[in-house]
Design a protein that fits this description.
The complex is a heterodimer of chains A (225) and B (467). Chain A is α/β, with parallel strands linked by helices and 225 residues long. Chain A has 8 helices and 12 strands. In chain A, strands 2-1-3-4-5 form a 5-stranded parallel sheet, sandwiched between helices. A 4-stranded antiparallel sheet of chain A has the order 6-7-8-9, covered by helices on one side. A 3-stranded antiparallel sheet of chain A has the order 10-12-11. In chain B, the strands form 4 sheets. Chain B has a 5-stranded antiparallel sheet, with helices on one face. In chain B, strands 10-12-13-15-14 form a 5-stranded mixed sheet, with helices on one face. Chain B has 3 domains: 164 residues; 86 residues, Helix Hairpins (Orthogonal Bundle), CATH 1.10.287; 152 residues, 2-Layer Sandwich (Heat Shock Protein 90). Classes of the chains: A alpha/beta (225), B alpha+beta (467).
């Protein structure tokens, strides 16, 4: 899950980025509105956590400009402005959810997950492919009720494929799901992690679920029941 | 008694009572006097008739009452006493009860009320007897001189029963009329009072229903002229209350908003820290971050208190002559370590004789505030220029820092509470957004003017002119 946190207050920005990263998300941060716009123009995210009162370009302007540019990233407004009119303005400007400060981190995470599911048109937090099951809430994987131990990056890779199961996912899209903007792209890093993941799944004889489409990318096959 | 209506009624009815009573009394006395005059005229005529019946003839001086109806003096309705010299020649049977003395040459009672009976009118006359010359001539007696004869004293008194009855009825009627007048006047005055005070009643009701937050005004339509100063004053007060309430609401909302942010910081720091087990170093790092948030919140609280104190403070601080240049020099010197730390170049230019009248404490705090603001917002490696010069109306202090992130359009809002210039005078938490609001109030208290100009990416300039 790729997230962007646009928040000028360092304590909030640092802590939620840290907490979300610990949950396996790839988190980029911006401390002002212009930085947020720059991130949105140069990369794609599953969910943006956006403060409204930002130095420079304010949060509502960031949101409006992003929508005008055709960006349909899920946006959760996180702000100290808690009046009804503020919430209406934020949602009308194109936000998908609104959370007032102070907030419980668990609620923030739950709302981000809900937006993530909405983006991928999943109604339940569980995705299955054959006997393989991913729990998006807990970030865990099971095969026939047996836990499959995965590293955070391996899980992110499997989640990226599972959310697009039976569809070819290009290497670039997988790389985007795994790394921050700051990371330098590497030509074979995706292949390396696919190899790691296949090895873990081979222990359950499920490595065939991930298939290579030469020159196109990878696909997670959900065999018919 | 605090009711205007009651006071008005009692006052008006009391005044009317006095006026009507006096008028009634005067009328009564006039009527009584008129009656007395009538009675006295009758008495005088009757007395003249009676005295004409005291004759001096051949038999001496006698009261000849043969032609008179003496019954009128013996049935208790009239009293008569006739004396020749000191010798009484006639007296009504009940005359003694009147306690009237016969007139003497020294004292002639004229039309007095008999002491023993309030409604008996008496008069008396001391006259010489009529001389019956024919009788004397027939008797061959000489006609004496009137002055040689014993004077005849005639005292006549009469019950004025008709007048008494008239006056009694007059008193009853007067009392009834007076009473009726008072009652009708009371009703009438009450009506007038109600009508006159209706405007006041309506005004009182309208004032009583005004909302406590000053959000409504009194309508000045159809108000009595006398009430207009009250309406005007109440509306002025309502406006001031509304503004004060609005300020309080805005402040409350601002404070609530500004407190939510550090609270959110603390909340998320702690939430995330507790989300999973961590080593000591990580917990310590979180606690340091939390402590920073607490320090920022403390600073904001202190500045809020300072602003509150300044807003409550009057303009009558102790104004003395202060060397502004000297204060600026001290504050700039104190700022040098911070400037050096951020690689900022400071230039300070202080003219001679830069003295102004000001409260030294407030002036120190204002200059420290403005210089601290510049040091806080100057760009890394930028410049701060401080000039203290003589101005036509006092002393001018100019502080210019490079690297302004304030758009010219945002300048008017910089003096508002919690304004951070929005375009990056500082990020949330690092600056409370109260510094320039405090500076403005401090300048007001010093009677100084403060002005800001800003060019985004260029200079941020503050001009302070002290009288």
């Amino acid at each position: 899950m790729r997230l962007l946190v646009v928040e000028d207050y360092e304590a909030v920005r640092k802590s939620i980025a840290k907490g979300l990263r610990e949950l396996g998300a790839e988190v980029s941060v911006a401390s002002d509105g212009q930085g947020g716009l720059d991130h949105l123009r140069s990369s794609s995210f599953d969910v943006v956590i956006l403060d409204l009162m930002l130095p420079g370009v304010d949060g509502l302007t960031v949101l409006k400009q992003a929508r005008e540019a055709g960006d349909d990233t899920m946006v959760l407004i996180l702000t100290a402005r808690n009046r009804v009119q503020d919430r209406v303005d934020g949602l009308d400007a194109g936000a998908d959810d609104y959370l007032a400060k102070p907030f419980a981190f668990e609620e923030l995470v739950a709302r981000v997950r809900a937006l993530y599911r909405r983006k991928h048109q999943i109604r339940t937090p569980v995705v299955t492919a054959g006997r393989l099951m991913l729990d998006l809430n807990s970030g865990t994987v099971q095969f026939d009720d047996q836990p499959v131990p995965l590293s955070p990056r391996e899980y992110s890779l499997l989640e990226c494929l599972a959310l697009r199961k039976n569809r070819i996912v290009p290497r670039e899209a997988i790389w985007m799901a795994l790394y921050d903007l700051e990371d330098e792209p590497s030509s074979n890093v995706v292949d390396v992690y696919v190899g790691y993941l296949r090895k873990k799944l081979a222990a359950f004889e499920a490595d065939s679920l991930i298939q290579t489409r030469r020159g196109q990318g990878y696909i997670l096959v959900d065999p018919p029941a | 008694m605090t009711s205007i209506r009651s006071k008005f009624l009692v006052g008006a009815i009391g005044s009317a009572l006095v006026v009507l009573s006096v008028a009634t009394m005067v009328t009564y006395l006039a009527v009584k006097k008129s009656l007395e005059v009538q009675v006295d005229d009758a008495l005088r005529q009757e007395l003249a008739l009676l005295t004409s019946h005291v004759e001096h003839g051949s038999d001496g001086t006698a009261f000849d009452n043969e032609d008179l109806d003496m019954g009128a003096y013996e049935d208790g309705s009239g009293f008569l006493r006739v004396a020749v010299g000191t010798e009484e020649v006639y007296s009504s049977p009940d005359f003694q009860g009147l306690a009237l003395q016969l007139p003497t040459p020294e004292k002639e009672p004229q039309f007095v009320w008999a002491a023993s009976s309030p409604r008996i009118r008496a008069t008396a006359q001391l006259v010489p007897p009529r001389i019956d010359q024919e009788d004397l001539a027939e008797a061959g007696l000489p006609v004496p001189l009137a002055s040689d004869l014993e004077p005849v004293s005639v005292l006549l008194a009469r019950h004025d029963s008709a007048g008494e009855e008239f006056l009694r009825q007059f008193r009853i009627i007067a009392m009834v009329v007076l009473l009726a007048s008072m009652v009708s006047m009371g009703v009438f005055l009450r009506g007038i009072g109600n009508r006159a005070l209706r405007g006041l009643d309506e005004l009182a009701n309208d004032i009583a229903t005004l909302p406590a937050d000053g959000s409504s005004r009194l309508d000045d339509h159809a108000r009595p002229d006398e009430a207009m100063p009250i309406v005007t004053r109440i509306n002025e007060l309502s406006q001031r209350v509304e503004q004060a309430v609005e300020r309080e609401r805005a402040l409350g909302a601002d404070v609530a908003h500004e407190l939510r942010t550090p609270l959110a910081g603390l909340h998320s720091l702690i939430d995330v820290a507790l989300h999973r087990p961590r080593d000591v170093a990580e917990y310590q790092s979180t606690l340091r971050d939390a402590l920073d948030v607490v320090h920022q919140t403390e600073t904001m609280a202190e500045q809020l208190l300072r602003l509150h104190h300044l807003e409550a403070q009057g303009l009558n601080g102790s104004q003395v002559e202060v060397d502004v240049g000297s204060v600026v020099g001290e504050q700039c010197h104190a700022l040098e370590p911070l400037a050096a730390k951020r690689n900022v170049t400071m230039t300070v230019d202080i003219a001679n004789r830069t003295r102004a009248h000001a409260d030294p404490n407030t002036l120190h705090m204002l200059i420290a505030n403005l210089l601290g603001n510049a040091a806080s917002h100057v760009d890394e490696g930028g410049t701060i220029r401080v000039e203290c010069t003589r101005h036509e109306s006092g002393v001018q202090l100019t502080i210019i820092n490079s690297g302004s992130r304030v758009q010219p359009a945002d300048v008017p809002r910089l003096f508002d509470r919690f304004s951070r210039g929005d375009a990056g005078r500082g990020n949330t938490g690092h600056h409370s957004g109260l510094g320039l609001a405090i500076a403005k109030r401090e300048a007001e208290l010093l009677g100084a003017t403060i002005q800001i100009t800003s060019e985004h990416g260029g200079d941020f300039r503050v001009d302070l002119i002290l009288a």
